[in-house]
Amino acid sequence: MAPEVLNNQRYGLSPDYWGLGCLIYEMIEGQSPFRGRKEKVKREEVDRRVLETEEVYSQKFSEEAKSICKMVSSW
């Protein structure tokens, strides 16, 4: 869930763009930006990670792909 939604803030299309960034990340990396592959965590922990951690980009990401993910995730 997008940070704006988790924080009960007003929002427009920003959660959709944030979700697109997460989807692109997952398509390239093969796992969610906030959960390890096959890692079992409760939703509250994922929510905490969304709010408190920065996504890590592996060598699979070109500079353009990183830029796109960061751009749409920060709208």
Instruction: Calculate the terminal CA-CA distance, rounded to whole Å.
Output: 14 Å
Q: Strand pairing plus helix content: what structural class?
A: mainly alpha
Q: Under the CATH scheme, which class?
A: Mainly Alpha
In the CATH hierarchy, the architecture is Orthogonal Bundle
In total, the number of strands is: 0
Biggest sheet: strands, sense, closure? Answer: none
The CATH superfamily is known as Transferase(Phosphotransferase) domain 1
SSE arrangement, N to C: HHHH
CATH-defined fold name: Transferase(Phosphotransferase), domain 1
> How would you state the average pLDDT, rounded?
88
Number of helices: 4
How much of the residues is beta strand, in percent? Answer: under 5%
Unreliable stretches (pLDDT < 50, length at least 5) are none
Helix content: 40-55%
InterPro entries: Kinase-like_dom_sf, Prot_kinase_dom
Pfam families: Pkinase
Protein name: G protein-coupled receptor kinase 5-like
Domain Protein kinase: 1-75
Task: Please describe the structure with a list of short key phrases separated by commas or semicolons.
single chain, 75 residues, mainly alpha, Transferase(Phosphotransferase), domain 1, 4 helices, flat
